[in-house]
């Protein structure tokens, strides 16, 4: 059986370091807002190049808190619009609607799966305050055109960097391309905690201060509450685990690239469209997503051969029950993508023999 993702194996590689990190925290008797968090935040800031990194409880909170921070700063308000790709994971959209702003869904480019810039400019109105770029599946969503548009219309750039830690554009890491970025360290992400965790990075001092406070009950001084905040903290134990794993992320991302390149070179089947990576070296391949009209048949075929695949994602956000208000939107490319995508196994512990097996069955299909 070739598993889609073997979390046990992924973490077993760092067994000794992780156990040592856990026992340090247990022995210290200090579980929140301590040295481990501080240390991880410094490491993450220096890894991305951003001035500030703030650990929070998860990736959704990271994105929610960025928008909430802009609301507290008076830069955004209820009813304002944020442009977002229609084919993203639902958390991107939830972060917007939870703050009572309006997501403006833009179609993706079906080759890269990232937001289609051609379509985007015509969707900007006087109420548009930001673009949320999503580096979907690990591929950077940024270029000179997009940068030009955000400057021209004075839009904030919020990066949903849940899937792309370590990716870069012209030597600048994701998380340091826009005005603020949300990271997820959900166990299955490229940098995965052993539970929930997330972070915000930004170069904006004021925004960083507000988010830090908002995530801790809206308080920067004990028992003094400046904002109606929430409790969204990153535990010491998770920060300690993440510090261990951050040291290995580049090596793991390189191995993902090796698998992706092998898939790109070796999968040869007319029924299948491979993903396009204009800057393949800068892609961190959180997921390797192919498209085919025969998606369900291929999934079943591979399952019979002992190969597990997943679909990211089966239902687009605007067709979810919780978003009935958006169900009439016309987003044909997004809907087609959701019917055709299939994610092949890719991970730092998949061996090249297994990758070869996947390729040979796909080529047989
Ligand atoms: C995983 C993910 C999130 C949310 O992260 P959590 O830590 O699960 O809250 C947000 N956006 C995208 C694109 C994701 O893949």
Automatic annotation (TrEMBL):
GO biological process per UniProt: polysaccharide biosynthetic process
Alphabetical UniProt keywords: Aminotransferase, Pyridoxal phosphate, Transferase
PTM-bearing positions, type N6-(pyridoxal phosphate)lysine: 189
Record GO terms (molecular function): pyridoxal phosphate binding; transaminase activity
Enzyme class: transferase
Active site: 189 (proton acceptor)
Highest rank taxon of the organism: Bacteria
EC number per UniProt: 2.6.1.90
InterPro entries: DegT/StrS_aminotransferase, PyrdxlP-dep_Trfase, PyrdxlP-dep_Trfase_major, PyrdxlP-dep_Trfase_small
Xref: Pfam families: DegT_DnrJ_EryC1 (PF01041)
Residues that span the membrane, as ranges: none
Family membership: Belongs to the DegT/DnrJ/EryC1 family.
PANTHER family, alphabetized: 3-OXO-GLUCOSE-6-PHOSPHATE:GLUTAMATE AMINOTRANSFERASE (PTHR30244:SF36), TRANSAMINASE (PTHR30244)
Name of this chain's protein: dTDP-3-amino-3,6-dideoxy-alpha-D-galactopyranose transaminase
Gene: fdtB_1
